[in-house]
Amino acid sequence: MVDLYHPGTLRNESNLADSCNVGAEDHFSSHLEPVISKLPSIHAPPAFEVYWDSEDPENPRLWPLWYKGLTVAAMSLGATVVSLSSTLYTSGIPGLQEDFHVSKIVALLGVTTYLFGMGIGSIIFAPLSELVGRRPVYIASMTIFLLLLLPSALAQNIESILVSRFFGGFFGSALMSNSPASVNDIVSDKHRALAFGFWSIGPTNGPVYGPIIGGFVFQYLGWRWTNWIVLIIGGVVLVLIASVKETYAPVILKRRAARKRKETQDPKWWTRYDDGVGFASSLRINLKRPFIMLLKEPICMFWDGYVAIVYGVLYLCFVAYPIAFQQERGWSPGIGGLSFVGIGAGVLIAIACEPLFRKVINLHRKDPATGMVQPEAMVSIVFFGATLLAVGQLWFSWTCTPNVHWIVPILAGVPFGVGNACVFIYASNYIARSYGIYAASALAGNMLTRSVMGAFLPLAGPSMYKVLGLNWASTILGIVEALCILIPVVFYFYGHRIRKASPFIKEVEKLQIA
């Protein structure tokens, strides 16, 4: 019999029978019962199990390469639109201040409400996608996200903008938190890093493209057009997303089992992902999962905290760069937006280096049981990125003043961009690899923490840079990022022990390969 989630892996019939004869209460440790779906009980006959055949065309991991590429592109573009909207707004802040007579701090609340909405939405839409499937969540949330751009574009007061951006971020979060899980759904462990590299081209550059595009949009069309641009691009992307099939294997198999029960009028058809509870109970279980993982899983706690710091510093750049290049050097909004080109170039360099990074990863010792390198191999790239992050930040901190040629601080964005991309791509990869079919829930906690940090840290930016100055404020951030290098170092050497000690990962492995 073929393993359900890892095609080509054979399972022993006696092991399957044994797992079916274990009561649900005995199969899972009590502290995990509220967050992990249970294997079927003794009433599930093995002969009626619905599973993947070895060449099943509906298995997302066996889709043709071209269709996998289309799926990755759709997921990447969807996340790009949402991340682009988060920073495109910042370019129009001077116009908002002038039209609505508000301070810069109040205008910056549009970034805060948007990112806070993303954080809240991710912990709802990620587990919801593990219950009803990724595709319906994408289509519904993306549609509402686009509709919410209308009140923001037509707003007559700042309150309307803040409210519409909160809900825009809330619904847009589905694309940010779930799309990497969809990529994880369709690729094998061997090709995951490559697929994540292609997926990340959009969302990692989205925040950087925002001020580059937005500067010229605001300068020539006005701040309202920052919304219309996102609406136009997003409408095209929504059509592409709607053309992609469901990627989440448990939901596909549960739907197939339901069809068989209906067609044969026989209730015995089942899948190992059936939980035996109603929709309301399943929803409650799924909604709890991201919180439990965030609060009890060391992998989630440390990585979510670290990525949140990185994300917060990135969003502080959208406060620091306008000060350094527009206020102190007198650049126009359009030209000032080009100061982010260095960061964007760094992100693209990191993605272009994926074949080299893959070679470095594959040099690590392989697990004899699976023939694959351990997930901690990916942490080596995170360490490299974390180092470059600190270097780029410290470089910028002491070259951003007008007495230094403008190209020097812009070039500081290159290592900073490389570092950001490496941390986001390979930290997400590590989390997804560790938690398998519950990658969306694990990544939802990651989205929550980083969105909260990205939402509130920039509010302190204007005051921080005013009191400390660009040099010292940026230096402090660089020192913090340097200290955080310890996190990938610890996980590189001890991550395998942390994973083996995790009761949650043990139970997830049972659910996937028992």
Automatic annotation (TrEMBL):
<keyword id="KW-0472">Membrane</keyword>
<keyword id="KW-0812">Transmembrane</keyword>
<keyword id="KW-1133">Transmembrane helix</keyword>
<dbReference type="InterPro" id="IPR011701">
    <property type="entry name" value="MFS"/>
</dbReference>
<feature type="transmembrane region" description="Helical">
    <location>
        <begin position="228"/>
        <end position="253"/>
    </location>
</feature>
<feature type="transmembrane region" description="Helical">
    <location>
        <begin position="65"/>
        <end position="84"/>
    </location>
</feature>
<feature type="domain" description="Major facilitator superfamily (MFS) profile">
    <location>
        <begin position="71"/>
        <end position="499"/>
    </location>
</feature>
<feature type="transmembrane region" description="Helical">
    <location>
        <begin position="438"/>
        <end position="460"/>
    </location>
</feature>
<feature type="transmembrane region" description="Helical">
    <location>
        <begin position="404"/>
        <end position="426"/>
    </location>
</feature>
<feature type="transmembrane region" description="Helical">
    <location>
        <begin position="105"/>
        <end position="125"/>
    </location>
</feature>
<dbReference type="Pfam" id="PF07690">
    <property type="entry name" value="MFS_1"/>
</dbReference>
<dbReference type="GO" id="GO:0005886">
    <property type="term" value="C:plasma membrane"/>
</dbReference>
<dbReference type="InterPro" id="IPR020846">
    <property type="entry name" value="MFS_dom"/>
</dbReference>
<feature type="transmembrane region" description="Helical">
    <location>
        <begin position="299"/>
        <end position="323"/>
    </location>
</feature>
<dbReference type="InterPro" id="IPR036259">
    <property type="entry name" value="MFS_trans_sf"/>
</dbReference>
<feature type="transmembrane region" description="Helical">
    <location>
        <begin position="137"/>
        <end position="155"/>
    </location>
</feature>
<feature type="transmembrane region" description="Helical">
    <location>
        <begin position="335"/>
        <end position="357"/>
    </location>
</feature>
<feature type="transmembrane region" description="Helical">
    <location>
        <begin position="472"/>
        <end position="494"/>
    </location>
</feature>
<protein>
    <recommendedName>
        <fullName>Major facilitator superfamily (MFS) profile domain-containing protein</fullName>
    </recommendedName>
</protein>
<dbReference type="GO" id="GO:0022857">
    <property type="term" value="F:transmembrane transporter activity"/>
</dbReference>
<feature type="transmembrane region" description="Helical">
    <location>
        <begin position="377"/>
        <end position="398"/>
    </location>
</feature>
